[in-house]
Design brief:
Elements lengths: L2 H17 L2 E7 L4 H13 L2 E6 L1 H8 L15 E6 L3 H14 L3 E8 L2 E4 H7 L5 H13 L3 H8 L2 H65 L1
Antiparallel strand pairs: 1-3, 1-4, 2-3, 4-5
Helix pairs in contact: 1-3
Length: about 220
């Protein structure tokens, strides 16, 4: 590789480091061409890339980028895997491949611009991906609206049936509202009857008193 080719390679790597939000460093050894091709294919399926790099050139490309934090890990056989998509999905692919290929190991990485150790990359692979989290969220949000959505997507007859049910509920509410004033007036009528009864009792008592007084006057006469 001549000097111009090296400069072009450094420029390409620097562009890769700057344009991707998540980059993992991978140590590989004892991996045959067939297995490496399989790994590339699996990584490509999750919108990510795999590339073997020369440490010296990678260190030159890492200058003045966030990848400088990983410079101590550019030793021994090194490959980079990178993505602008979901880093969790990429970590899951690498972790699964490592289980069957002990010659592969995670060194460290940057996830959305932040440094993470090899242990943290392993932990990252155990959490749900964005797609899984969004699926659960959409399920929770859509459950209460399932019946309404079904009605809206059904023929007009289904929609009319739904509207009829809503009108029926509105009519029941109106009838309940009409009954309420009559029920509230009942105590007023009862109060009037009580007042009339008390007035009648008072007249009876006054009559009794007048009779007793007349009787006493007759005795004196």
């Amino acid at each position: 590789m001549n000097r111009l080719e090296k400069q072009n390679l450094v420029s390409q790597l620097r562009k890769t480091f700057k344009e991707n939000s998540s980059i993992l460093l991978v140590k590989f050894s004892g991996v045959n061409v067939f297995d490496e091709t399989h790994l590339r294919r699996e990584i490509s399926r999750v919108d990510s890339c795999y590339r073997v790099v020369k440490n010296r050139l990678a260190l030159l490309a890492a200058k003045d980028t966030s990848m400088e934090e990983l410079q101590e890990h550019f030793e021994g056989p090194t490959a980079i895997v990178y993505t602008n998509g979901d880093p969790v999905v990429l970590a899951k692919v690498i972790k699964k491949f490592i289980e069957d290929h002990p010659g592969i190991a995670l060194k460290a990485g940057l996830v959305e611009g932040k440094y993470i150790s090899s242990e943290e990359v392993s932990d990252l692979s155990s959490i749900p991906s964005r797609v899984e989290l969004l699926s659960k969220l959409l399920f929770l949000l859509s459950s209460p609206l399932t019946n309404l959505a079904s009605a809206l997507q059904s023929p007009v007859r289904g929609l009319l049936s739904l509207l009829g049910q809503l009108e029926g509920k509105s009519g029941e509410a109106a009838k309940a509202a009409e009954k309420t004033p009559a029920e509230e007036e009942a105590p007023v009528e009862t109060a009037d009857a009580v007042e009339e009864g008390e007035s009648l009792n008072q007249e009876v008592e006054e009559g009794k008193k007048k009779t007793d007084l007349d009787g006493q006057r007759a005795k004196f006469n």
